[in-house]
Each structure stands twice: as C-alpha cells, then as structure tokens.
Amino acid sequence: MLQALILTLAAATAPAASLPIGPQADARGPNVLVLLADDLGWMDVGFNNPDTFYDTPALDRLAAQGVRLTNAYAACPVCSPTRVSLMTGRHPARLNTTDYFGAPQPEGILEAAARQKSQQKKPGRFQKLPMLPAPYVNHLPHAEVTLAEVLRDSGYATFFAGKWHLGGDGFDPTTQGFDVNIAGNRRGGPYGPGKYFHPFGMPNLTSKEGDHLPARLADEAISFIEGHADEPWLCYLSFYSVHTPLVGRPDLVERYKAKRARLGLEARWGEEGERRVRLVQEHAVYAAMVAAMDEAAGRVLDALERLELADDTVVVFFSDNGGLSTSEGHPTSNLPLRAGKGWLYEGGIKEPCVIRWPGQLGQGTVWEQPVQSVDFLPTLAAATGASLPDGVAMDGVDLLPALRKGEAMPPRDLFWHYPHWGNQGGAPGGALRAGPWKWVERFGPDGIKGELYHLEEDPGETSDRAQLEPERAAAMAARLALWRAEVDARMPRPNPLVVSNPEGDDRASEDQGGR
Predict the structure, then answer these.
(1) What are the residue ranges of helices labelled H in 345-465?
(2) Could you read off the pLDDT of 92-118 as tens digits, one per residue?
(3) Backbone dihedral region for residue 277 (phi beyond 0: left; psi -120 to 50: alpha; all else: beta)
(4) Which of 175, 155, 153 is nearest to 164 (CA)?
(5) Which end of the chain has a smaller Cβ tally under 10 Å, C or N?
(6) For the segment 173-232, what is each residue's pLDDT rounded down to a tens digit?
(7) Strands of 31-37's sheet, edge to edge?
(8) In the predicted model, what is the mean pLDDT of the chain?
C-alpha cells in the first residue's frame, strides 16, 4: 500500500510541460522590470497583511494593478541560493549553491573545531555542531545560462543595480549577461563606510552627503530606463533593503516611533527552537527601511507611467527569503507564519509576490497556486519570446498559460534543500510541498526526522500530523529522498570533533549579519 501511495503521489505531482506562448504579435517584446527585495517577509506588505505595522502604498498599488501570487516561495530560506534560482530557473540543490555565499565550508569548520579542541578551552560553536554542513559552490558558475543572457541574446539591453551576492571578482553581473552593474558585489549587505548612506563604497555608484541607498538605486534604474526607452530592456533592481544593518532614514524612523506610540505597541517574544522570535511588528527602524524601499520602488513605477512604458512592461516583485525574526535584531514578525529567514517553515520561504502585465494578465486578481523562484526565468522567457537554453534541465515552469486564464496549473511538487546551519537558528534539513501538504525534515547524526503539516488547515505549522498520517509521511519522505537523488544533492555528515553542550547550543551568534 505504501509503494502504491508513493507512486500515486509522484505521478500526481510531476511537473507538467509548459505550453508554448510564443513572442508578442509586436516584433518587440515587452520590457521586463524585476523588483527584488531582500529579507522582506510575506506579512510585511499591505497587500498580504492589511494590519501590518509597515506602510507599502506603492507595492500595494502594484498588487491592485496585477496578479498577487499568495503561495509564492523562495527556493531557499537564505539569499544567495534563491538568487541563483531566479537567475537560472534551476534549483540550488542541482547546482550545489545551497548556502549564502561566504558561509563557512565544512573544511573550515573542522579546522576551527580542531583548533578550539587543541586549546582545551570551553568548547566553541564549531565544536558543538553535531553535523558538518554540506560543501557548497560559492558563486554562480559561468556555465549556467542566466535570465540576463537569455534576454540579451534576444536583443534586450540588460541592467543590474543593487545586491548581487552571487560571486566576487570574475563573477560580477557583467560576467553573467548584464551590460551594466551598479553596486553589485560579493557582499550580502551594504557594509561600506556609510552603510545605507553616503559614502556607499560600492562599484559604479557615486554619492554625495545626504544620499540614501534605496533612492540612489532607484535613480540609476530610472536613468537606464530613460536612456533605453526605444528598445526592449531588462531592468533588475535588487534592493539591499531590508537586510541588516538596521539603519533607517531619520525622518522615517521618527514617523514610526510616533506610530508605535499612537498604537500602543510593545515588543513581545516567543520561542522558536533555541531562539527568541518576535511576535509583534513594531520595530520603528525596520518600518523606516520598508517605507524607503517602497518609496524607491514607487518612483521607478511612476517613471514607467511618465515615459508611457507601463503597458509594455512586465513587472515582477519578489523577496529572496522570509522576514528576519529570530536573530540579528529580530526586526519583524511573520505571524501567523512560523519562524523566519534561515528556517524551512513558512516564515522562512513564503514570499510576497506580484506580477503585472497590462492587457495580458488580470488586474487586481489573486492566484493561489504554489509557485517557486525557479519559475520566473521560464515565465519571463515566454513573455518576451526568448528561447531557453538547449539541453538544460529547467526546474521552473512557465506560469503564463495558467496565469492568463486564471486557472490552476497541473499539480506538482515543490522542493527545498538546505544542508546547513542558518545564522538565524535553522538546522540542516529539507522540505517538500505536495498540494496542501508539507513535509519538513531535519538532518541529524541519528538520521532524518520529519514533520507533516496541512497548510490549508494549519498555515502556522503548529500541529505535526506525522503520527496521525504515517503512510502519507512515509510517502512524502520517500519522494523527497528520490528528488535529492535525482538532483545529486549534497548532504551534511556527522562532525567527528563534536563536543556536547549541556548549557545549550550557541552555534551562531544572534548578532551576525551579512548573510
């Protein structure tokens, strides 16, 4: 019976082939504007959460004009892997780009643990890791074909501004299909001299006293669009906001301090594993960062209207992972979603998402189909009439046939693989979503342990049903294991230098940033 259930689930959730859309009737395809936020949670935007403490009028207006995808997921609970999936349409596990670029490799952890052990001091955090994370590739390989390369080969001018975090020297945006790179480098956050303010210390980005990073990135994007209004273009505006360091524009910080006092909000805390988790949205600095990003995005959208390009532009808004709630200042709450950035629960991987394409997609509509960041490259290629690379195993699917009709897609599985220790408290594991069911695994020295949730009935993942539905749990575990074998996913292994920690696990400091 179990074998039959496994086969039934696998057949029912296999990806369906995309329906060809073909190029626009016009010889020129639509422009493409990608607005990518960093660390912005699903509950941080007004179009998902009318009661949010933050204000996102520009993004709410975009959602009212396009399709709001309410079950959109990042391919990973941290940034670099998801950004790889957006660029390539391929799952990070397939490319072994499964952690943020710059995270410790297992060899470095072993060296540090051996050094700690030889010094015979109190065990350090690397000695307390029961599992060594899997080794990972710390850059986007040149052999991978990117969204920028696909569109550039179709005659598009290509522009990148903001956070890259897909490799350093030799792997910057201009080596991956972008004609222009503004501010993109190996870093995961704005760690220049002025952080979010002048001086930025970023490639090709000038500044003066008083300049604010989100606004300057918007300036550069608008300038590019104005200079290429007569040809098709890809503008990939990848905000550093709202990643740490937590620094806000002073006028906006004061606005949200006053709002917090007016609403009588105070911080409240819960627990997620061994971490504190914020339960109330009331962080004034974080609110100021959200507002500044929204304002900058709104200026770019307004420029499309002013230049009469809005009707000829596909706009995608997305975030690279869930809101930061369990470390590094704990600036937001994702409730009712569980946990946040760095975790495989919904708070770590479910993202705000809008696609607007006037005349092609519905206006102010809601689409509840589960989708993942791997889907954007094939979808945008279909929208522009561009050709996907031959002979490449594409994990994403073209969403347009279903989006255009407002219909459900054939069922398919969504997968996650994160064989690392998150700075935010998450542990090595994986996950599978099949219909309304989600299977979440944790990898440990004693094997793999899993939890089963029904997301439609329990979106907060509070009630583990693995014991109530053992056959379904076993079938989903088998399906996830089969997928890992199919993509040759790397797994963690026991740490030979582990030292037990009766006082608790401090495997990652809550003050770490840059991830």
Answers:
(1) 346-349, 376-384, 400-405
(2) 999 999 999 999 999 999 998 888 778
(3) beta
(4) 175
(5) N
(6) 999 999 999 999 999 999 999 999 999 999 999 999 999 999 999 999 999 999 999 999
(7) 180-182, 157-162, 233-238, 31-37, 313-319, 354-356, 67-69, 365-367
(8) 92
Q: What is the model's pLDDT at position 395?
A: 98
Give Cα 278 distance to the centre of its chain.
Answer: 20
* Tokens of residue 307, six digits: 């230049």
Domains of the chain in start order, with CATH, are 1-16+410-489 (3.30.1120.10), 19-103+138-408 (3.40.720.10)
Nearest to 243 by CA among 296, 283, 201, 289: 289
- The angle formed by the CA atoms of residues 180, 185 and 186, to the nearest 5 degrees, is 145
pTM for the full predicted model:
0.92
Residue 120 has pLDDT above 80, yes or no: no
Closest by CA to 285, choosing from 239, 225, 244, is 244
Residue at 33: amino acid letter: L
Q: CA neighbours within 13 Å on the CB side: how many for 352? A: 24
Average pLDDT (391-406) is: 95
